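Colleagues,

Please find the record for the two-part complex below.
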Amino acid sequence: MDGTLAVFNRALVSYRRLWQASVFSSFILPVLFVLSIGIGVGGYISDVGGVSYLDWIVPGVLASTAFQMAVGESTFPVLGDFKWVRGFHAMRATPVRIADMISGYQLYIVFRVLIASVVFLGVSALFGAIHSPWVVLTPFVCALLGVAVSAPTSAFAATIENDSYFALLFRFLVIPSTLFAGVFFPVSQLPELLRPLAYASPLWHAVELCRAATLGVAPPWPVAAHVAYLLAWAGLGYLLALRAFRRRLSD
Amino acid sequence: MIYARGLVKRFGDFTAVDGIDLEVAPGEAFGFLGPNGAGKSSTMRMIGCVSTPTAGELRILGMDPVREGPAIRARLGVCPQTDNLDPDLTVFENLTTYARYFGIPRAEGRRRATELLEFVQLTEKSGSTVDPLSGGMKRRLSIARAMINEPDLVLLDEPTTGLDPQARHLLWERLFRLKQRGVTLVLTTHYMDEAEQLCDRLVVMDAGKIVAEGSPRHLIETYSTREVVELRFGDDAPATYVEKLAGIGERLDPLPDRLLLYSADGDAAVNEVHRRGFTPSSVLVRRSTLEDVFLILTGRTLVD
């Protein structure tokens, strides 16, 4: 546990130095999205299933911000700590265990996602987009989503030698997920054949949970099923990361 | 501190370390001398418990590096060959974040960081980020970082490779202070002057094997002569003079650019060369060094 906290501490100290660089993508961009699409595009849309488009899109943007942040923070920073900074090699020379490296970094992802979620929710409340006290659960849904995508992305980053693979990851997984996993329009609009792809994305499950919480309605699947799906990604991702880090740091 | 018998490390078909025996005693400064690819770093990685031996027995601080890695690493200080400092953090933060990896409480970590920066003469740079520091300063910071857990054993992998002469001397002087404090140092190097400066005892490694062992002085006395004469003959190939100068000194080694003549009395050897009617374009008589020992043992130079 000490080791995990030490790794978390290092990530926090780095963040304290470099937080300005991520202010735009973490805090400003999501708000711009809500303004331009929620209010701008929303002006042309009467409502989605009985709620205004702005109210409908806020939980989606909330979850997709967490999604993109968690993936992004697990690509270059993780590969960099193997290849350029070699921070994991530095830890490897100390009592810190490989599991601590992964857990400590996941703790940092949770921290980043929680802060971004709370700030975004505050802004959304000013627009009157929050309709249920269940909203207090959404930061935790976002944190779970964060781990569910950050852990497998870390595993991927620990496996590759060349950062050009990240472009593929964004092009074929992150961007399609953001576009089609129920953030901007209901998955029911998709052709029936494509819907399972949206259901497969962890983002869709978090979007539906957040939407249910901010609007005060029931999600499409039982809450436990959505949560279990995200937990499965987190758990499997963690094991994959453990294996990938071990391979990279031992011989 | 370190005990190894028949230690082997293989990567697929390639044998990096080929059955070496070692013993390092507390307070000793012990060196691995050898060219690149001799197996020094692979041995260091096994001692640092980040690489599993393929075969043989290895004990570090009386423990088994495979089963008790974290417990051993808690008492080691490692200064790696490639710097792995955090470039965006300050010099001071690099030490305090690293202290936490050893479970050192915050306040104690700050106290040690201040003290160590003083020791490696980086106090003025405490608040600077690492990126703009010179190579020598980064290496000194790495050494300070390796000392943060007050280790029993410090591993230094090529501590001065890539540094300018002034930075090297400052680093040697700091390492010598550590040695005086009774810290056990184990270092690898392909510089013979570094080995002579720092090591009480060293092993010469070549192609994964130990080819000689002893104190620098002992190695020179055993394998080389007291003095060496370096002869150059303008544009003539040095090898063509081997036969002509046969019998002078104890041994002749032709290198591409010069001929080495090993002799207990260098001046007498030079006189004999002149007496035979040869006039080298340049003559240098010097004391024998570990470089000569390495050349005699392996037929190759250390740094090529």
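DSSP finds eleven helices and 13 strands in chain B.

Comments are welcome before we finalize the supplementary table.
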